[in-house]
Design goal:
Rossmann fold; magnesium ion binding; 22 strands; globular; alpha/beta; Pyruvate_oxidase; EC 1.2.3.3; 24 helices; 6-stranded parallel sheet; about 20% strand
Length: about 625
């Protein structure tokens, strides 16, 4: 017995000590194991334990110091949208945490996997009404699909690992609230990450069956004016959809997020619907009798899908979305690419139809108008020429971050995009100020690519302090600010409401001077002839590894509002008109004739859809 006790004591004295690491460092190692290389945030006292860990791990984890937490959250959302990988942002307790909400809601609405780390006062001070202490979890309960308050130092890395898994699973936001003192506590330096090779597997997707596909083909055969409305769910199957469109003589309209996935130069691609729209897309959709929505999340469906009766087919990987956009005639629970493949395999080619030819002619007429607007020279400057110069210097795989406002409309119409490009907007949440954060994310995620940031003066003003972030991290972003002293997107809305313009005019600023004050080279442009020199300078500076800003002083003209066109069927013919809401505030010329409407927007060569239908003998 004595020998046994002696041996046990001897073994305990010689055992190697357990290697420990601060809990916050263990947490960062989990992030690193998931392939996360940087995180966006702004320090605060309640987050110091994590800031300490970021200093310890600075060789493996880059801290990106933004100048406002909203920018950090929007940047993380943009990075997740661009890459499909989880991105990380953080804020300290109190205002640092609440400042994240806009960016987190942007991530939630656009189904982007984002992890938000939230500081909390030390556990010993919780529930004492301590400085900046408040119950943070209820604030994030709506925006996050997974939200947890860390209860022990030992559980911190586990909870963060679980949060990342949940963000991927839910394609949304995970939030972890960390009492500051926990991060300093030594815990065993174990392998806390659950990363596995199985994480790289493609998820199985639902497949269509013969009966579903044959039913859709019969509906197309019975229709006179079918149209496909495709969204980003088509992914890399755009060329296959073009083949199907040609084979079945069905034109395509796209959601904004599908821009670039279907080639812009495909004659049957009519473009986008609603307000940020192509004339041809709005017109052809307005006369459709069958709509086949494929992988499309269309937030304006209640406006556009309710304008007239039609048969409706919806193809989606998420069957819970069926009926969300329109009363459903047929739902096909399927991956978009697999659906298109089977449609091609089970269909026979259709002879060229008058309707398809007319749709193509309508789009060609619209494209000619866009080319005309782009190739003019104007003084003062107008927005179309700015896009002409962007298209000239943009590389094939350029990354674009486009802020909210008129630039969304103009980018859908004038910006050349292909599947090689990466681009990001705040789509469903439509948060002004998303442009700078998106550009930061784009350049950090794709350091070898050319990155453009396009924003209006209203949106840019919300986040322009983070130009200094571009300079600090030597991010060669081309910033293009279309400055017209107006919140023009809202101004155009107010044009069509019986009210005076209210709250939409903003004081002009010298953005070039402000930019130079932050150490970013810049130039101001006031007429189209000055654009080539300005963009040449932008190329020179950014190729040398520095950001550059162009302050383009454009007019506040309204782009042609094709959404105000109306089509109705009367006495055996189509009649195109102008909505009674157009120019309700009487700030523009009062127009009732379609051709006068076209001329008012320099579109004398635009044709009405009934004219085109007559040329191609399309009968109602």
């Amino acid at each position: 017995m004595k020998n046994t006790v002696t041996s046990a004591v001897s073994n305990s004295q010689t055992a190697a000590p357990v290697k420990t690491v601060p809990a916050s460092v263990a947490m960062l190692k989990v992030l690193e194991a998931w392939g996360i290389q940087h995180m966006y945030g702004y320090p605060g006292g309640s987050f110091n334990s994590t800031m300490n860990a970021l200093d310890i791990e600075k060789e493996r984890m880059q801290y990106i110091q933004i100048r406002h937490e909203q920018v950090g959250a929007l940047a993380a959302a943009a990075e997740a949208k661009l890459t499909g990988k989880v991105a990380v942002t953080f804020g300290s307790a109190g205002p640092g945490a609440t400042n994240l909400l806009t960016g987190l809601y942007d991530a939630r609405e656009d189904h982007a996997p984002v992890l938000a780390l939230i500081g909390q006062v030390p556990s010993t001070n919780m529930n004492y009404n301590y400085f900046q202490e408040f119950d943070e979890n209820p604030i994030f309960a709506d925006v996050a699909s997974y939200a947890r308050l860390v209860m022990t130092p030992e559980s911190l890395p586990y909870v963060v690992d679980k949060a990342i898994r949940e963000a991927y699973k839910n394609k949304g936001v995970s939030v972890v609230v960390i009492p500051n003192d926990f991060g300093y506590v030594p815990i065993p330096d174990d392998l806390y990450s659950s990363v596995s090779p199985t994480d790289h597997k493609e998820r199985p997707l639902p497949q269509p069956n013969d009966l579903e596909v044959d039913a859709v083909l019969e509906m197309i055969k019975a229709a006179k004016r079918p149209i496909i409305h495709v969204g980003r769910g088509i992914r890399d199957n755009g060329k296959k959809l073009v083949e199907l469109s040609q084979k079945l003589q069905v034109p395509i309209a796209i959601t904004g997020l599908a821009k670039g996935l279907i080639p812009d130069d495909y004659e049957g691609n009519l473009g986008t619907l609603n307000r940020a729209a192509s004339k041809a897309a709005d017109e052809i959709f307005a006369v459709s009798d069958l709509v086949i929505a494929i992988g499309a999340d269309f937030p304006f469906a209640n406006l556009i899908y309710r304008t007239h009766p039609f048969k409706f087919v919806q193809v989606d990987v998420d069957e819970s979305q069926f009926g969300r956009h329109h009363y459903l005639d047929l739902g096909v629970w399927s991956d978009a690419g697999a659906f298109v493949d089977m449609m091609l395999a089970r269909s026979e080619a259709v002879a060229p139809t008058a309707f398809f030819k007319a749709a193509v002619a309508d789009q060609k007429n619209w494209r000619a108008y866009l080319d005309h607007m782009t190739n003019r020279e104007t003084e003062p400057l107008e927005f179309e020429q700015v896009y002409r110069e962007i298209n000239k210097i943009a590389e094939d795989d350029a990354v674009f971050s486009i802020d909210v406002g008129d630039n969304i409309i103009n980018s859908f119409r004038y910006l050349n995009l292909t599947p090689k490009n990466k681009w990001v907007i705040s789509a469903l949440f439509a948060s002004m100020g998303s442009g700078v954060p998106g550009a930061l994310a784009g350049q950090l995620a794709y350091p070898d690519r050319q990155v453009f940031h396009i924003a209006g003066d209203g949106a840019f003003s919300m986040v322009m302090q983070d130009l200094i972030t571009e300079r600090k991290y030597k991010l060669p972003i081309i910033n293009i600010i279309t400055s017209n002293g107006s919140l023009n997107f809202i101004k155009s809305e107010q044009d069509d409401i019986p009210m005076n313009h209210s709250g939409i005019f903003i004081d002009d600023q010298d953005f070039a001077m402000i930019s130079r004050g932050m150490g970013v080279e810049a130039v101001t442009v006031r007429k189209s002839s000055e654009l080539p020199t300005a963009f040449a300078k932008a190329l020179e500076v950014t190729k040398a590894g520095r950001p550059f800003l162009i302050d383009a002083k454009i007019t506040d003209k309204r782009g042609i509002p094709v959404e105000e066109l109306t089509l109705k069927h009367e006495n055996g013919e189509w009649i195109e008109g102008i909505s009674s809401s157009y120019n309700a505030n009487n700030t523009l010329d009062h127009l009732t004739d379609v051709h006068e409407f076209f001329k008012a927007y320099d579109g004398a060569n635009l044709k009405s859809l009934p004219e085109i239908f007559a040329e191609y003998n399309v009968k109602p």
